Amino acid sequence: MKTQHPYLLHDESLNEAVRSLVAKAGKSENSDLLIQMITTALKLQGEKVDRGDLKILNSSLKELRWAFRVFAPYRHIPKVTVFGSARTKRTDPVFKVARDFSKLMVESGWMIITGGSTGIMHAGNEGAGRAHSFGANIKLPIEQGVNPVIRDDKKLIHFKYFFTRKLVFVKESDALCLFPGGFGTLDEGFEAFTLLQTGKMMPRPVVLLEPAGGTYWRRWLAFVKGSLLGKRRIDSADLHLFQMARTPEQARDVILDFYRNYHSMRFVGDRLVIRLKHPLRDSEVKQLNRQFGDIVTKGKIEPSKPLAVESNDAASLTLPRLVLHFDRHSFGRLKCMVDAINCMGNQGA
Q: What backbone phi and psi angles, to 5 degrees, belong to 61?
């Protein structure tokens, strides 16, 4: 087993100064991480890092800190991120669909995150209303305007970098809804698929929405099936990472249905813990084992009480659980299993 060395500076007097500084700032259960962050900054000084590189790190840390602060009071409210073209006109039928979808999600108790600019972003914020909207705007050489719904709102954040902005789009949301768009929309969509496919983001609903008669997502899907699946560059199960919808109501239902019984999941060592809102019957657990045994590396999918390391998560302690040794690469199949779970359990239907 590889020995893990402490993350320290070579000068012990500086290590002690860092520990003292963090302690002086106030007691925190995350003092170890704060110490490492300061240690990292001091290591950069000792390594003579280029000023331009330091600017990237400095700006990234500052804008992420601010974003986390903005979202913190709303973490208990589910959110959907809306992606789509900034060039979509108000007269385009897609604009109305985006606005109506956002309105429906707010009526269902959700909030909306957009890029805060024009087109589909404007439609999303307009449908949600100012009180239920977030804007994650990007600073561009040619200024990207902020739509009037979210302009000057405390929930509007300005990002220098696309990568920090995209991190916030996925980190702070519980679902994604994509509308027709350009390079930016496709970039955001493909990054989300990559994160889901590789397990860097836990399963969540991703909806591709456009009005009936539209061909944007149908042609995109034909490309994916022909050039990616057809050439074995993705697996057939990866097609379950997203769903297509033709109406705002269909898109809303896809998202709400994903959380009908599924609550959340996390890894604990080599085990995957899936938290549910309603317990499954023995027969349903057996059905899952028959249907999804191929993604279990040893043992079975089994009901479980909270594991010891979950004791610090008070909000989920009363939830029923399933535990399995997941193979950590069949995430398309895992999404299928979540879909199956959402059709099970005593949900008072």
A: -65, -45
Same domain, yes or no: 268 and 254? no
243 and 282 fall within a common domain: no
Task: Find out whether 94 and 194 touch, Cβ atoms under 8 Å.
Answer: no
Are 62 and 80 found together in one domain? Answer: no
Residue 3: pLDDT above 80? no
Looking at the structure, tell me whether residues 193 and 249 fall in a common domain.
yes
Average pLDDT score over residue span 262-288: 96
Is residue 227 located within the same domain as residue 108? yes
**Cα distance between residue 257 and residue 248, in whole Å:** 14
How far apart are the C-alpha atoms of 217 and 206, rounded to whole Å? 13
Considering the entire predicted model, what is its pTM? Answer: 0.94
pLDDT in tens, 307-329: 888 887 877 889 999 999 999 99
Q: What is the DSSP letter of 145?
A: P
82: which strand partners?
Answer: 177
How many domains are there within the chain?
3
- Cβ–Cβ under 8 Å, residues 198 and 229: no
Write down the H helix ranges in the chain. 12-25, 31-46, 51-71, 93-107, 120-128, 162-171, 183-198, 216-223, 248-258, 282-292, 331-341
Q: Which residues contact 125 (CB under 8 A, 6 or more apart)?
A: 102, 112, 114, 116, 133, 135, 147, 149, 150
Measure Cα distances from 34 to 59, 71, 211 in Å: 18, 20, 48
DSSP sequence for 240-293 = GG-EEESSHHHHHHHHHHHTSSEEEEEEETTEEEEEESSPPPHHHHHHHHHHHG
